[in-house]
Amino acid sequence: MQELIISQVDTINKLRQAIANLPRPLGLVPTMGYLHEGHLSLVQYAKKECAAVVVSIYVNPTQFGPKEDLDAYPRDLERDFSLLAGEGADLVWTPSNEEMYPDGYQTWIEVNETAYPLEGRMRPGHFRGVATIVAKLFNCVHPDVAYFGQKDAQQAAVIKRLVKDLNFPVKIAVCPIVREPDGLALSSRNVYLNPEERKAAVVLSKALFSARDAFTGGERNGNRLREIMAGIISEEPLARPQYVSCADPDTLEELESVSSDALLSMAVFIGNTRLIDNVILRV
Ligand code: AMP
């Protein structure tokens, strides 16, 4: 079988030259690599809606805390390139740290209230790193549409806020979570799980789906929905929850009762691996 080849650039100059030759509308799929079906689904949405698709692969150091897994974060560029070629992506951009944060770098973007709770509280500085790198990616690529996963629900809310507040001329598309058959949300970090932890990790989606079932059955009390999720997680000995939340999907404020759309979300350690997951409740 003939191997598919994808055009790849690393510097911003080469990126701009390559993009000048691509048709519009242009879609951008920002990733940190080690791609799985969740990332590829974003490329598929982009392919449907755009004339050309650029994928960035960059493990952005400024969104990792000092005790987080930056050095251990899984990487396999060759495999990523061949998966992206298979999806028909037009260009992959793999910037270097030296180019994204050259000596003397000192400009940061901070989104306030939307970034404070949940992930923002557990990972101080995370969304400052995310907002800054996403703004830089947008300035380099100038996409018409940028594709993000519902998997990182607060990230999507923060980026929508950023785009609105700073008038970026880009549409933000948020695409559904891709899951394993047993419910576990796909994540590059799932490779950290040993077989026993992998089995235990299903507790996140189990808890979320149970709370969603209760909601479908008429439960509207935010505390009760949080209790249902916490109760199921507490039955799994390998699980240590950091937060369980029932919040407004745009502001991330906790809800006393659900009267319009709501976001159920959680961060749970399974062994040493921190997993996040969520579902949207629609009224
Ligand atoms: P990451 O490489 O983890 O930064 O993810 C890159 C993009 O893929 C983000 O917009 C994520 O929300 C999205 N993504 C990650 N996992 C999934 C998944 N299971 N389903 C859909 N999108 C995902």
Task: Name every ligand kind in the structure.
Answer: adenosine monophosphate
Number of helices, counting only DSSP H or I runs of 4 residues or more: 10
Summarize model confidence as the mean pLDDT: 98
How does the helix and strand content classify structurally?
alpha/beta
Proportion in helices: 25-40%
**Strand portion:** 15-25%
Task: Explain what the structure shows.
The chain is an alpha/beta fold and 283 residues long. Helix content is 36%, strand content 19%. It is built from 10 helices and 9 strands. It has helices at 12-20, 37-49, 77-87, 97-100, 119-122, 126-141, 153-165, 195-200, 203-216, 222-234; strands spanning 7-9, 26-31, 52-57, 91-93, 145-149, 171-175, 239-247, 262-270, 273-281. The strands form 2 sheets. It has a 6-stranded parallel sheet with strand order 1-4-3-2-5-6, with helices on both faces. Helix 9 (203-216) packs antiparallel against helix 10 (222-234). The longest helix is centred in the middle third of the chain and has 16 residues, at 126-141. The mean pLDDT is 98. Adenosine monophosphate binds at residues 31-32, 38-39, 41-42, 148-149, 151-152, 175, 177-178, 185-188.
